[in-house]
Design brief:
By secondary structure, this protein is α/β, with parallel strands linked by helices. The protein is built from nine helices and eight strands.
Length: about 270
């Protein structure tokens, strides 16, 4: 930031103000994306970790970042940071719920983290009445699938070992089970995590340039979200993710993004 201010001869507050305005576009653009209807979505979920303010135990750090990415278009649906607790995962699941409302076929794939499926089952279940005697059982909504890949060695675990690929929660019997084991992975999100570490200095492992506050880290993530989804072409698909998803006919330029007008609500 100091180098940019020195080169362009502007004050630090001016640059910070422009960054805050740019990051503020994340909310309206996400709302615009959720207004569209999609045939199907295969979403990968994973987390990336960094430090905030100072070196603390991982369970106390607010640098955990949840990433939800559409596999086909590489469009990032969620990019939120905070403590690795229920509130962080619930914010990501709320985004998944909005996608489910606009999509008839949604598949969520995660690596080892069960809170995605547990929270999604908690807020997105229904009672399946099969006509048999007894209480109807709870299942995920029709068309919603969750798959989990257990990573790492489980030799230290006692009792029955968990399978490598599994369905962590009950699904609707009429939901097509067409997800192959070879497709249950989050390789694309993990590649994005590596890219995020290269482009955002707060996530680099070999330096101490971590964020001083959670709000500052989230602001950089919002800026990254806008650039990744609406401006920059992905090196794999050679398309802007918003174009590949069908939101736009062509990607936006920096000038077009900066000219988007936002109505600021006055504080009460």
């Amino acid at each position: 930031m100091n180098a940019v201010c020195r080169i362009f001869e502007i004050s630090k507050n001016t640059l910070l103000d422009w960054e805050q305005r740019f990051a503020g576009l994340q909310g309206p653009l996400l709302l615009y994306a959720l207004l569209h209807t999609f045939l199907s979505q295969l979403i990968e979920g994973d987390e990336v970790y960094t430090k905030i303010e100072k070196n603390r135990p991982q369970e106390e750090s607010e640098g955990w970042t949840v990433v939800l990415m559409d596999r086909a278009s590489r469009f990032i649906w969620a990019l939120r940071c905070g403590k690795k607790d229920r509130d962080l995962f619930l914010s990501a699941i709320q985004t998944v719920m909005d996608i489910i409302a606009r999509t008839g076929d949604v598949t969520l794939i995660t690596d080892g983290e069960r809170r995605y499926s547990l929270l999604l089952f908690e807020v997105c279940h229904e009672l399946y009445r099969s006509g048999r005697p007894g209480r109807p059982r709870k299942v995920l909504r029709r068309g919603v699938r969750v798959r989990l890949k257990n990573k790492g060695s489980q030799s230290h675990r006692r009792g029955r070992k968990r399978p490598k690929y599994e369905t962590p929660c009950s699904e609707h019997p009429e939901t097509p089970q067409n997800v192959l084991n070879s497709e249950i992975h989050t390789n694309h999100v993990e590649a994005f995590n590596a890219s995020l570490r290269r482009r955002n200095s707060a996530y680099r492992r070999k330096t101490n340039t971590y964020a001083k506050k959670k709000t500052g880290l989230q602001r950089t993530l919002d800026v990254f979200w806008v650039v990744h989804n609406f401006i920059r072409k992905h090196f794999t698909t050679q398309q802007v993710p918003a174009v590949a998803l069908g939101l736009l006919k062509e990607g936006l330029s920096w000038g077009q993004i900066l000219r988007i007008q936002m109505q600021l609500t006055p504080s009460i």
